[in-house]
Specification:
Layout lengths: L3 E3 L6 H6 L3 E3 L4 E4 L20 E3 L2 E9 L6 E9 L4 E4 L8 E4 L4 E9 L1 H10 L3 E5 L5 E5 L10 H6 L10 H5 L2 E5 L3 E8 L10 E2 L1
Parallel strand pairs: 12-14
Antiparallel strand pairs: 1-3, 2-3, 4-7, 4-13, 5-6, 5-12, 6-9, 7-8, 9-13, 10-11
Length: about 200
């Protein structure tokens, strides 16, 4: 059995290590080694049945944001999904949930979980966008200042026009770069946009 990638917040690392989990310094992630029973690690696995966003490909988006603590500009990261991704529409009653196709790009916000392959991909790109404990007490993927380590507010980074990823002008949009990843994407996220303002002005690599 191949090793299983885990998503481990910093406060849980000692517990994961005590259960037999190991740290891979090259890709900076915890994993269950071959031959170790994965059952004790369930809470740190990305459960595919819980995903509410899926896509056959995705963009890792990068922009800049002013740190509220040290006031320096810092790189911030997030995910934009191209048209053709699917979103889980939760019905009011059991059995009414259905997957709907997004016909425009979507910017994701308040991400709680990423599938392991996506987590590894973004961790190889930056260490300042990672799973952590937010100021409101919930776990999720957060941006941190590359200079002082301060936590950035998700709403400001993703929802405020002209700040981070919500472009207000063409100049704002050109500050956003998109790394295209031709691999499957899966996540649990609390919010996403219907369309991305000035998406066509963003730089794709």
């Amino acid at each position: 059995m191949a090793r299983i990638i885990l998503q481990v917040p910093f406060c849980d690392k000692n517990e994961v290590k005590a259960r037999g989990g190991q740290w891979d310094p090259q890709v900076r992630t915890w994993f269950v080694p071959e031959g170790v029973d994965p059952a004790p690690f369930t809470m740190w696995m990305a459960d595919q049945t819980l995903l509410n966003v899926r896509s056959p490909a995705y963009f890792i988006a990068a922009s800049v944001h002013s740190c509220p603590k040290c006031v320096q500009s810092s790189r911030v990261h997030g995910f934009i999904l191209p048209a053709g991704h699917t979103l889980l529409n939760v019905g009011e009653d059991e059995g009414e949930d259905e997957w709907e196709v997004g016909d425009e790009p979507s910017l994701l916000c308040s991400i709680e979980r990423l599938t392991p392959t996506v987590a590894i991909r973004v961790r190889a790109l930056t260490l300042n966008y990672r799973l952590g404990l937010s100021s409101d007490g919930s776990y999720g993927w957060l941006n941190y200042c590359e200079h002082c380590g301060a936590e950035f507010d998700d709403n400001e980074v993703f929802c405020e026009p002209g700040m981070g990823f919500l472009a207000f002008t063409e100049e704002d949009a050109r500050q956003v770069t998109l790394l295209h990843v031709a691999e499957e994407f899966g996540a649990v996220c609390g919010s996403y946009s219907f369309g991305v303002a000035l998406f066509e002005e963003m730089k794709v690599f």
